Amino acid sequence: AAYYNAFFMALVMVLFLTISPWIIGIFTSQPEVLYYGVQALRYVSLGYIFYGYGMVVAQALNGAGDTYTPTLLNIFGFWVFQIPFAYIVAIQLEVGPRGVFVAIALAESLMAIAAIIIFRRGKWKSVKL
């Protein structure tokens, strides 16, 4: 299932990379909003392959009764990494909105990789329901 979802998300990524101006154009015709919307869609979609695989693995942990691990992954991935990293890159390093978009893609990818590593260790098999 994880491979199928990663494949599907790869198709979505290609779609977003190629027709993002058209997609964002459905919602706005303002040049500045269009510019940042296209950037956001393109940068964030770069993490979709990892995200597609990782979301299935994280949900498999939930389904096996290990709800603690995915919760920790989300807390650390979003609150400890993504938000501070986005702030540092966008504000401190003066990259601007692009830094936020990169932080989102990077955090999603790293959380997926962490979920895969944790899943493969197999500790979830010993969780008592």
Can you put this structure into words, describing what you see?
It contains five helices and no strands. The protein has one domain (2-124). The model has no long low-confidence stretch (mean pLDDT 93). The radius of gyration is 17 Å and the shape is globular. It has 129 residues and is mainly alpha-helical. Helix 1 runs antiparallel to helix 2 (31-45). The chain starts with a helix and ends in an 8-residue tail after the last helix.
Give the rounded overall mean pLDDT: 93
* Shape descriptor: globular
Structural class: mainly alpha
Percentage of residues in helical conformation = over 70%
What is the gist of this entry?
The chain is mostly helical.
Q: Which terms summarize this structure?
A:
single chain; mainly alpha; 0% strand; 129 residues; 5 helices; globular
